[in-house]
């Protein structure tokens, strides 16, 4: 089943690939690797998701934010490659979780992004990952996700 069909089956719509917010580019394709800049979470209506784990955001809300970030990554892939046919494998996700010093469930939050990649790309979606707690993220979002993807 294609990625587009899987998105439809999951009831998900890809957002438009966001433009860079500063002096960088959204993606870089070099030597068969597509590097996707960090994506922040927007809900299905396009509103920015804000919060901090361990303070005002639950693990479940953090997982949904991570999933929405992953959708942003997938949208960047589609924009950069013109579709998904050239995606060989999701190599690595970097998941940054805005959290209080005593919050230690960053890996559970990151599963929101990881689970979506596997749901969309199957075995090719299984990846290495970092799940890192940080004090603050841009615009007060709870999660940011970047990616490295192998391209044919």
From TrEMBL:
Q: Where is the Endoribonuclease L-PSP/chorismate mutase-like domain?
A: 5-140
Which Pfam families does the entry link to?
A: YjgF_endoribonc
What is the organism field in this record? Sandaracinobacteroides saxicola
The protein's name is RidA family protein
- The organism's superkingdom is given as Bacteria
Q: Signal peptide location in the record?
A: none
């Amino acid at each position: 089943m294609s990625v587009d069909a899987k998105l439809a089956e999951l009831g998900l719509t890809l957002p438009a690939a966001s433009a860079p917010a500063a002096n960088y580019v959204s993606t870089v394709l070099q030597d068969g690797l597509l590097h996707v800049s960090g994506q922040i979470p927007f809900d299905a209506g396009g509103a920015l998701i804000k919060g901090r784990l361990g303070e005002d955001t639950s693990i479940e809300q953090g997982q949904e934010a991570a999933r929405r970030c992953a959708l942003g990554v997938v949208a960047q892939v589609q924009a950069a490659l013109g579709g998904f046919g050239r995606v060989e494998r999701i190599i690595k996700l970097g998941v940054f979780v805005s959290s209080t010093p005593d919050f230690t469930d960053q890996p559970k939050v990151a599963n929101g992004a990881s689970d979506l990649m596997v749901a969309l790309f199957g075995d090719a979606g299984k990846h290495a990952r970092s799940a890192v707690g940080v004090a603050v993220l841009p615009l007060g979002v709870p999660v940011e996700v970047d990616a490295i993807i192998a391209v044919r």
